Amino acid sequence: MQRLLDSILPIVSVVAVEDGLHDAALGAFREAGSGRVSFVDRTSFAFMRAQRIDVALAFDADFGSAGFDLAT
């Protein structure tokens, strides 16, 4: 696991989620009601839309259902 982290972290940007984005994701999560799509995924969707990111490296269909292209 350590080797994996050492290989991946240098090429990944980690960005803190600002309050407004957090609030938007929380609102979307509450509005959905079902909890089928996680709060973490909803936060990712809000961040990606704010950054105009349209392709996700994802292994679940939720990103595709949310309108993102999947690079799997």
Annotation, overall tally of beta strands: 2
Low-confidence stretches: none
Helix content: 40-55%
Structural class: mainly alpha
Walk across the major sheet and give the strand order. Answer: 1-2
Helical stretch count?
4
Largest sheet: 2 strands, parallel
Helix and strand run: HHHEHE
Q: What fraction of the residues are assigned to beta strands by DSSP?
A: 5-15%
Distance between the termini: 21 Å
Radius of gyration: 14 Å
Q: What is the mean pLDDT?
A: 90
Shape: globular
How would you describe the overall organization of this protein?
This protein is mainly α and 72 residues long. The chain has helices spanning 2-8, 19-32, 39-50, 62-65, and strands at residues 55-56, 69-70. It has a domain at 1-46. Strands 1-2 form a two-stranded parallel sheet. The model has no long low-confidence stretch (mean pLDDT 90).
Topology:
Blueprint: H1 2-8, H2 19-32, H3 39-50, E1 55-56, H4 62-65, E2 69-70
Parallel strand pairs: 1-2
Compact overview of the structure:
The chain has 72 residues and is mainly α. 51% of the residues lie in helices and 6% in strands.
Keywords:
4 helices, single chain, globular, mainly alpha, 2 strands, 72 residues, two-stranded parallel sheet, 51% helix
